[in-house]
Write a structure and sequence with these properties.
8 helices; elongated
């Protein structure tokens, strides 16, 4: 399993001490071992995952008015994980990974310029897995005060602001300096609200197709937390012909070193390109036409391959 370099993963963790940890069961540091919190024997795995899903939902509900008002409007939660001592369940380190993206079309060259950063947010606290699980099961775990957290940043929410100021940048593409402005993004091709809504409906249909198949395909790899981020096409303004399309995903996973407990996380963005030999209206029709087949597996206009085929050679 490939891991990030030490420069990426050795972010300060949460060494355990204080009244909310239980040092009595693990006094010999040389013999202490660490496990993922979800694998700690006193944790109900189903309840833990329910708590993480609730935390993700809470973030998504507030992001548009907070963190997503900045450079990226689609910051998306990926993996939330913690390492704990194997006997007492004292929390050693917790990290929450995110991805974001922005796709823009060079109006002169039709190149799709990508900004797709990821974020690795280590959450500081001094507590046990059992107590943390109870916080996650609460109604507002995003804003709840964490035992042993820094006074200035007592909640998960408070600790995210600094993290989002330090992205791991994954940008591709440059803008041409010569030529005429002949191309637009698919999101900007239609000037009417009805036209824009048709494109949004097509995107939503193929993204739903990805979500329906991911659990049995792409999301069964190391990157189990794959999320669709952005999908756009470069379109010729005068004809509506699609030059190319790009679909960006964010993914992450983690590993708990048994001896140190310092979480090692991998987080990455994937840009998957696919060709269309037709117009944007034809692509919209392909993805929105009635039928019982999987939208993501429908052949793209003018070619025999589908969006699913393109992902197969791109995602892990």
């Amino acid at each position: 399993m490939k891991l990030l370099s030490a420069a990426l993963v050795l972010v300060a963790g949460c060494a355990m001490s204080g009244s909310d940890s239980d040092p009595s069961l693990e006094q010999d540091a040389s013999s202490t071992t660490y496990v993922s919190a979800v694998d700690f024997e006193k944790i109900d795995q189903g309840a833990w995952y329910d708590g993480i899903h609730s935390l993700n939902d809470q973030f998504n509900q507030i992001c548009g008015d907070t963190f997503c008002e900045g450079d990226y409007s689609n910051i998306t939660p990926l993996t939330f994980a913690c390492s704990v001592t194997s006997k007492a369940g004292n929390v050693k380190d917790c990290a929450w990974n995110f991805a974001a993206s922005q796709l823009d079309v060079d109006p002169k060259s039709a190149a799709i310029v990508t900004q797709a950063p990821t974020f690795e947010c280590h959450i500081k606290m001094k507590t046990t897995a059992v107590k943390l699980a109870a916080i996650l099961a609460g109604g507002d775990s995003l804003h709840a005060t964490l035992p042993g957290a820094p006074a200035a940043t007592p909640s998960i929410y408070d600790q995210l602001s600094d993290c989002f100021d330090h992205p791991f940048a994954q940008d591709t593409g440059t803008y041409a300096t010569t030529g005429t402005d002949s191309y637009v993004s698919s999101r900007d091709y239609y000037t009417s609200a009805a036209g824009a809504a048709r494109w949004d409906a097509a995107k939503n249909a193929v993204i739903a197709g990805f979500d329906n198949v991911c659990g049995d395909t792409f999301c069964s790899s190391d990157y189990g937390d794959l999320q669709s981020m952005s999908l756009e096409c470069a379109v010729t303004k005068s004809t509506g012909n699609v030059k190319s399309c790009a679909w960006v995903f964010g993914g992450s996973y983690f590993f708990v070193p048994e001896k140190t407990g310092q979480l090692q996380t991998e987080h990455k963005s994937f840009r998957c390109n696919f060709a269309v030999k037709g117009t944007l209206p034809q692509l919209i029709t392909t993805w929105t036409a009635a039928g019982t087949d999987s939208v993501i597996r429908r052949p793209l206009p003018g070619v025999t391959a589908s969006a699913y085929d393109a992902l197969g050679g791109c995602l892990p």
